[in-house]
Amino acid sequence: MEKEExxxxxxxxxxxxxxxxxTVSGIIYxxxxxxxxxxxxxxxxxxxNILEKKTTYFTMVRLALGYVLxxxxxxxxxxxxxxxVRKFANRTILTLRSQLYYALLTGQKQTDIxxxxxxxxxxxxxxxxxxxxxxxxxxxxxxxxxVYLCMLFxxxxxxxxxVRHSCHLGRDLDPxxxxxxxxxxxxx
Length: 188
Prior knowledge:
Number of helices: 5
Helix content: over 70%
Number of strands: 0
């Protein structure tokens, strides 16, 4: 094993295959997280339509089946994302430890190798755990926020119209409604 300095990026690029699975499953998982509330809204609207006799209960059954399948897919993608993030972390720890053992066995005095090894192994574990948490947070915070923002922008025109329409009836009763009627307000 040759002695070389590795950058943090090199550990990510060395594990590109599990990170590719994490990326694909993480994006599907986060898009699916936005699909859940959409289905819930569709189910509520369908129930209202059934009560008003505008549709049949078969429509509700199809929507409910789609909702259950979507939730199953979302949970499966969550499982894959977490599994491959853990595989990424474990392989990174293995690489760090292998490099550490090699460096310690070929370059240290034998008298203090135990203390150095204990500290270095702890540092390697902490480093790999930090990389795992960073990778997880990209999806659990970053990607899901982008998905929710896209969903809000997609619904903006409809949402703004509905809120404005309902606020015309009682402008003074709702403290939010006067904000919607300010000059220059064109939605979220």
